[in-house]
């Protein structure tokens, strides 16, 4: 068993969001994203994995394949299908969320 304190030691970067790997193995990965107000995760997708997001703090606009941005806040889970393009923008406060993927990173591919 492994444990992680998801609300501790959160790192914010300027000018781009921070994506910190909390766990990576051959079965998948868990990333903690930290965005300052106004920062954006540009459109991308994970072609071979769903992207499961759990919002920990703050509010953001999350847009999936339909392009419709939805304002989403803490204690909400968002599910993007494999290959579904998505973008994320922090609103007027810091935004922190976990992204859980069922694939290990591919060093030959850009994005997720």
Structural overview:
It is a single chain. This protein has 112 residues and is mainly beta. The protein has a single domain, classed as Sandwich (Jelly Rolls). It contains no helices and nine strands. The strands form two sheets. The chain has a five-stranded antiparallel beta sheet with strand order 1-2-9-4-7, with no helix packed on it. The protein has a four-stranded antiparallel beta sheet with strand order 3-8-5-6, with no helix packed on it. A hairpin with a 5-residue loop joins strand 5 (60-63) and strand 6 (69-72).
Q: What is the top-level CATH class?
A: Mainly Beta
Order of helices and strands: EEEEEEEEE
Outline type: globular
Number of helices: 0
Strand percentage, roughly? over 45%
Q: Total strand count, please?
A: 9
Output the strand order for the largest sheet.
1-2-9-4-7
> Are there runs of 5+ residues with pLDDT below 50, and where?
none
How are the secondary structure elements laid out?
Elements (H helix, E strand, L loop, with lengths): L17 E8 L2 E8 L4 E5 L6 E7 L2 E4 L5 E4 L4 E4 L5 E5 L4 E7 L11
Antiparallel strand pairs: 1-2, 2-9, 3-8, 4-7, 4-9, 5-6, 5-8
Task: Put the structure in a nutshell.
The protein is mostly beta strands and 112 residues long. It contains no helices and nine strands.
Features:
Jelly Rolls, five-stranded antiparallel β-sheet, 9 strands, globular, 112 residues, mainly beta
